[in-house]
Q: What sequence folds into this?
C-alpha cells in the first residue's frame, strides 16, 4: 500500500480500537482522526473523547446520529417488513452503512486519504463497512488491522496495550463474557456459551428485556399512528423517529418482547449463533404488517413479500448503497403512500397482539362486501362459480388426460 497520510478510524474507546489507534500510528507513521457514532448504544461517549485525547489524537469527532439512524435507515428498512432468514431484524447490519457514510464525510472534511475499522476478518461487518466506503469514495484506502496484524487474541491485545500504556477498561465491574453490539434498534450477543448452539443463553445475559414468564400479568395497550408507512405518534403523542423507537423499546422490554436466539448464515460462509434483543423493532414489524393489511392492494402486498428476502439479504450482506437496493427502496416507498392510519396493540408476556387497525383515508376493507350478513347486493355470489371453473380448467384438463391413460 502506498504511503498513508491521514486515517479516519471508527473508534469506540474500547480495547480493540484503542490498540488499533496506537498500531496505526506505529505501523504507518500517520495522523489518526477518531470518529465515534452515537446511534443509541446507551453508553457514555465522552470517555472515548478523553481517551483519544490522552493518546495524542488532535481531531476527534463524536456525532449524535440517532435521529438520522432511525429516520433514514431503520424506518426505510421496516417499510419492507424486513427479516433476514425469517428471524433476524438486522439491528447490526442496518447501522453499518450510516457509520460508513459519516466516516467518509469526515474523511472528506479533514482531507484524509484512508479509513480504518475494527471489524474482524471472520465477520460480516468488514464487508458492510468497506462496501459503504467504496460506494461513497471509490478511491479511498482502507485499513483493516485484523486482516494484517498478529494480535490475534485478547491476551495479545492486552499485552500490547500494557506495553504502550493504553488504558484497557473505561468501565468498572466484571466484563461480559459476550461480544456485544448495541444501538437504538437492538443489542446483540455472540461468543461465550453461545458458541455451542445447544446451550441456552444465561438468564443474566439479557440487558433490555425481562423474561416473558416474568413480565407483568397485565396487558399493556398502545396505539401507533402511521403516515406513509412510518410511525409518527405513540398513543396520540407526536414523536420524532428516534423517540418512537426508544419509547417502543421501553414498552416492549418491560413486557418481555423482542428476544431471539438465531443461527444465521454469514456472508463470508460460516454459520454463526447470535442472541438478540429487539423489543421496539418486534413491535414495529407486527404493527406495520397490520396497517398494510387494510391499506395495501393484495398483489402489491404479495409482491413486497416476494421481494423482501432479497432486500433483507442486500442489507445483511452490505449492499445498502448498491443500485439494486436503491431501486427496491424506490418501489417499497411508492407502495407506502397509502399506508396511513392507526394500529392498536396489546403487549402481553412476550407477545405482540394486534387488536385493531383503521384508516380513515386509505382503507380497502369494505364491510358491506366482507360481511357474513345480508350484503344488499354488493357482491354477487353466483359470480364465484365461473371464477372457480376458469381457475380449475388446467387441472381438469390434466385430470382427464390421466384418466385416459
A:
Amino acid at each position: 500500500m502506498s504511503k498513508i497520510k491521514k486515517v479516519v478510524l471508527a473508534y469506540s474507546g474500547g480495547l480493540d480500537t484503542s490498540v488499533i489507534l496506537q498500531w496505526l500510528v506505529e505501523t504507518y507513521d500517520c495522523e489518526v482522526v477518531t470518529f465515534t457514532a452515537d446511534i443509541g448504544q446507551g453508553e457514555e461517549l465522552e470517555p472515548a473523547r478523553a481517551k483519544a485525547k490522552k493518546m495524542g489524537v488532535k481531531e476527534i469527532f463524536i456525532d449524535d446520529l440517532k435521529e438520522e439512524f432511525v429516520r433514514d435507515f431503520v424506518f426505510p428498512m421496516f417499510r419492507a417488513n424486513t427479516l433476514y432468514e425469517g428471524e433476524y431484524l438486522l439491528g447490526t447490519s442496518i447501522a453499518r452503512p450510516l457509520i460508513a457514510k459519516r466516516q467518509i464525510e469526515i474523511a472528506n472534511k479533514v482531507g484524509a486519504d484512508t479509513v480504518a475499522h475494527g471489524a474482524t476478518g471472520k465477520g460480516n461487518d468488514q464487508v458492510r463497512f468497506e462496501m459503504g466506503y467504496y460506494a461513497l469514495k471509490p478511491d479511498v484506502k482502507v485499513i483493516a488491522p485484523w486482516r494484517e496484524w498478529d494480535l490475534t487474541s485478547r491476551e495479545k491485545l492486552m499485552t500490547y496495550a500494557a506495553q504502550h500504556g493504553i488504558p484497557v477498561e473505561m468501565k468498572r465491574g466484571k466484563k461480559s463474557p459476550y461480544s456485544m453490539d448495541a444501538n437504538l434498534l437492538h443489542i446483540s450477543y455472540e461468543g461465550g456459551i453461545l458458541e455451542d448452539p445447544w446451550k441456552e443463553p444465561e438468564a443474566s445475559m439479557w440487558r433490555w428485556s425481562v423474561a416473558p414468564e416474568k413480565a407483568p400479568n397485565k396487558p399493556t395497550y398502545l396505539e401507533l399512528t402511521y403516515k406513509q408507512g412510518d410511525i409518527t405518534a405513540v398513543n396520540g403523542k407526536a414523536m420524532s423517529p428516534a423517540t418512537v423507537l426508544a419509547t417502543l423499546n421501553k414498552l416492549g422490554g418491560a413486557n418481555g418482547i423482542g428476544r431471539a436466539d438465531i443461527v444465521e448464515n454469514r456472508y463470508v460462509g460460516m454459520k454463526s449463533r447470535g442472541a438478540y434483543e429487539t423489543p421496539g423493532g418486534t413491535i414495529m414489524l407486527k404493527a406495520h404488517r397490520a396497517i398494510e393489511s387494510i391499506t395495501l392492494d393484495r398483489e402489491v402486498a404479495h409482491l413486497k413479500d416476494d421481494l423482501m428476502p432479497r432486500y433483507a439479504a442486500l442489507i445483511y450482506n452490505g449492499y445498502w448503497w448498491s443500485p439494486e437496493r436503491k431501486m427496491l427502496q424506490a418501489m417499497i416507498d411508492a407502495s407506502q403512500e397509502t399506508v396511513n392510519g392507526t394500529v392498536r396493540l396489546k403487549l402481553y408476556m412476550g407477545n405482540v397482539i394486534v387488536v385493531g387497525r383503521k384508516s380513515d383515508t386509505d382503507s380497502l376493507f369494505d364491510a358491506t362486501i366482507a360481511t357474513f350478513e345480508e350484503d344488499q347486493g354488493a357482491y354477487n355470489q353466483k359470480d364465484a362459480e365461473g371464477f372457480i371453473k376458469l381457475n380449475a380448467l388446467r387441472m381438469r384438463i390434466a385430470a382427464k388426460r390421466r384418466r385416459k391413460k
In short: Residues 383-404 form the longest helix (22 residues). The CA atoms of residues 370 and 379 lie 9 Å apart. The mean pLDDT is 94. The chain has twelve helices and 14 strands.
